Amino acid sequence: MTSVPSKNIWIRRQQCPCGDWKCYVTYNGDAEETSIASQLVKAESLQSEAMVAPYVGMVFKTDEDAFEYYGNFARKNGFSIRKERSRLSPQLGIYKRDFVCYRSGFAPVRKKTSGEHHRDRKSVRCGCDAKMYLSKEVTDGVSQWFVVQFSNVHNHELLEDDQVRLLPAYRKIHESDQERILLLSKAGFPIHRIVKVLELEKGIQGGQLPFLERDVRNFVQNRKKVVQENDALLNEKRENDMMELLEACKATKEADQDFVYDFTVDENDKVENIAWSYSDSVNSYAIFGDVIYFDTSYRSITYDMLFGAWIGIDNNGRPIFFGCVLLQDETLRSFAWALQMLIRFMKGRCPQTILTDLDPGLTDAIRSELPSIKHVTPIWNILPKVSSWFSLQLGTQYAEFKSEFDTLYRLESTEDFEQRWNRMVSIFGLGSDKHVTLLYSLHTSWALSYVRGYFLARMATTAYSKSVDAFLKGLFGTQSCLRIFFEQVGFAANIQNQPHQEMQYMHMKTCLPIEEHSRQILTPFSFNALQHELILSMQYAASEMANGSYLVRHFRKVDGESLVIWIPENEQIHCSCKEFDSSGILCRHALRVFVDKNYFQLPEKYFLSRWRREGSLVFYDDHSVHDNDDEWFQEFQSLTETLFKESSITKERSDYTRRELTKELTRLLNEVRDMPESDGAPMDFTLSPTG
Length: 691
What we know:
By secondary structure, the chain is α+β, with helices and mostly antiparallel strands.
């Protein structure tokens, strides 16, 4: 009997939010989220570049590296390879490896039993002598693999690119395709229709999938057999793993009374949903819980559960973890329970704004449980779906449609949005399209004309999206049971929520007193945002009106002015662009007015507490510092951030990094202290508390 899987596999949700189970979303908006088909095209284009043939003396770190390299070489040259012999010794373990052409050797002759019928399959093996033999050597405890024999002489015809991809070694069904195939199979789709659906969804021509119809048939048959054999065992394993997760939560609660968790059970008294949060997360929420992103983009194939994470943004622009939830389904009831847990864990404090994916069920739950909260779907959660839904359907018209959609998204007037939306739907003949209907039903949560002015704390940006994606991929990078996954989440959350020491220059670029004063108060992240607006404000002209308000226009644009209302009694300023309402950072239009009014310092009310630098340490220098010093500090910051991310994946990595980094920094500090304290070029560093 096939063994039960012991690892938890996470994938991005692909079921389309339109509610049609036959429809799913492919994510091809950026390089890291391309479809499998486009990844293969990219891989093949890389392979088409010049590749060095293996040679005697070539060195590899591992035998698997060697096999992968030889396999890539083989695919480029029209054949595939297989592992032949290996030799083992008590001292070295496996110390020799033989890799050969797939047509090496000859098929053994089968003896036919009388009366038994066998299919007479012709073997592809023809005694080809192409090969690569490896030998392992260990020097100072480090093992390396050397190519000791190589031959690229074949006694058969080599295949063209469009043929070699069909060799068994290169026909792979990706995990996301496996889930889709099984879903369609359960719905009664015949195999040839499943293949056609996959081709249409990926936007490729017939016969261009990285696998054949018979591979799909074999996969479905084998998986059905495995499921039938292991269904009872899988259910038992899931129940046991859920109980282990619950026990881990109880143990954590005993060790830390501020840790919070809760769960629900079904009619059979089995764990259904579970949510948890950490003491540091609750404390961080008290400061940065004004806006949260409820990410529900991953689900577990093994446990058939949806993972939801509550994430915010700290005063340095980094994602901050507030808690998470595992849900058995995506119903209104489950989402409502998750939102209830969030508010209870955070001691009744509600956010001003919640960001989510485009999900009607989650939208209904927010309306039900948090009716007074602003709900926003960031555009980076919509554009990949728009591409997936309409690029094939509209064909050559898609570029024009995309341009019109982008314009609609940025419109300032809700009336203009309604008119142009109807016109767009009419022009492209999308009146009965289910995805257009879905987008419009939720347009008040994503169109800027409706959400402009909602406080988002700069979380609707692509940069924040990528940071969140990197954090989540770190959680799901390894496959493990739920208990180990719980530990990984806790460890990653602890690293993410710890105060970080920022070491970054904050240069003066305008020499305006407002800039100098702001630099003393804001974190590098928020200061850079304000500084950017301040620089752009110099390209605008402000015209005072009779009522004391201002019209602010760009010097090259005749229309598109912004109205800035100035109330001198209490130094209040309001701009029609509503940037301050949205990000908590003053816009270029308001700054233009402050500069014209000869303000040397911005009023304190325009430095929000969430963007102030209080609690950590920042090195920054004035504008006299050379550019190469600034690059050095940016490089240092980039390296340390990467190190923390990589080391936070496992406890072993973290312990090793902490141990080695402490030793190296101590050594470096001692050497620096031994150096002269002056070299004739003093630098004016200022230490300032920062958040």
